[in-house]
Specification:
Blueprint (H helix, E strand, L loop, with lengths): L1 H10 L3 E8 L5 E8 L2 E2 L1 H10 L13 H14 L5 E5 L4 H10 L14 E5 L5 H11 L3 E5 L4 E5 L4 E2 L1
Helix pairs in contact: 3-5
């Protein structure tokens, strides 16, 4: 049901646009990935690329629902700043390596499916970002103040 509520309010937007800045690669992207009732395939490809596993240089499709969720978070935060990306898609090899070295990385992470992202937003606190994500009631929200990011995913609604 929460996903339906998001879909209903998102449909009212003629365009869905996002900005990303990859903290690991220094790459930026400003994109309108949805326009006039349709996802724009070439723009989704650009999103997939910037959110790739930079360690393995592996690109996989990112769940468009995750992008829609980010649009709602952006609106809730009243910001046009880019999402600063710590981690988007993760290859199985990268996820296993990160899991072995950090207790905060799940073995079956939704990053493996392109359904999760770890982010910050310039000019907004992590607490504000977390609050905006939790308000959506549309997936998982992880709060990592010691390491400086918020995890957002399109899995079941939960938080930690």
């Amino acid at each position: 049901m929460p996903a339906v509520a998001i879909a209903h309010t998102t449909v009212q937007l003629r365009r869905r646009s996002l900005k990303f800045y990859s903290l690991h690669t220094g790459e930026s992207l400003s994109t309108t990935y949805w326009q006039d009732g349709h996802y724009v395939p070439g723009e989704l490809d650009r999103v997939n690329y910037i959110l790739r596993d930079f360690r393995a240089n592996e690109v996989k499709p990112i769940d468009p629902t995750l992008l829609d969720l980010l649009v709602h978070i952006q609106h809730r935060l009243s910001t046009a700043e880019p999402f600063q990306v710590i981690s988007g898609y993760r290859s199985p090899l990268t996820n296993a390596m990160l899991h072995a070295s950090s207790e905060g990385v799940a073995v079956h992470s939704l990053h493996l499916e392109g359904k999760a992202i770890d982010i910050t937003v310039p000019g907004r606190s992590l607490a504000q970002l977390r609050g905006a994500a939790l308000a959506q009631q549309a997936g998982g929200v992880g709060y990592y103040p010691r390491t400086g990011f918020v995890h957002v995913d399109t899995g079941r609604v939960r938080f930690w």
